[in-house]
Amino acid sequence: MEAGAEDVEWNDDGTAEIITEDTLLAAVRDSLNQNGVIIEEAELTMVAKNEIELSPGDAMKVLNLIESLEDLDDVQKVHSNLALNDEIMAQLDTA
Q1: Which residues contact 60 (CB under 8 A, 6 or more apart)?
Q2: Are residues 63 and 41 in the same domain?
Q3: Structure confidence by residue, pLDDT tens digits, 7-29
Q4: Residue 32 lies in a domain
């Protein structure tokens, strides 16, 4: 946190996701490395501030669109502010 991290979220597997301003990414990464922390991955990621909830049918349409976009060779990443609830996740499991 002293190097500029805003938040740390611990995952079930013992890894941590560290949230920081984009301009501080390198400084936070370097500080962690200097303190003996093993960095598996350090990248800039778009995080939605406001998520939207859609009906299951509309959510599936958006997820199909996202999948189609990800399949394009020129597309590196696709970001979304779609909130996935339990009902939508259950539909994904059966699809």
Answers
A1: 88, 91, 95
A2: no
A3: 888 889 988 888 888 899 999 89
A4: yes
Cβ atoms of residues 52 and 83 within 8 Å: yes
Structure tokens at 90: 């259950």
Q: Is 8 exposed, middle or buried (0-12, 13-18, 19+ CB in 10 A)?
A: exposed
Residue-number span of the structural domain to which 39 is assigned: 1-45
Neighbours of 42 (CB within 10 A): 14
Which one, of 49, 50, 48, 45, lies nearest residue 76 by Cα?
Answer: 45
Q: What SS3 state is found at 16?
A: strand
pLDDT at 1: 59
- Cα R_g (the chain), whole angstroms: 17
Q: Would you place residue 64 in the very low, low, confident or very high pLDDT band (cuts 50, 70, 90)?
A: very high
Residue 51: is its pLDDT beyond 90?
yes
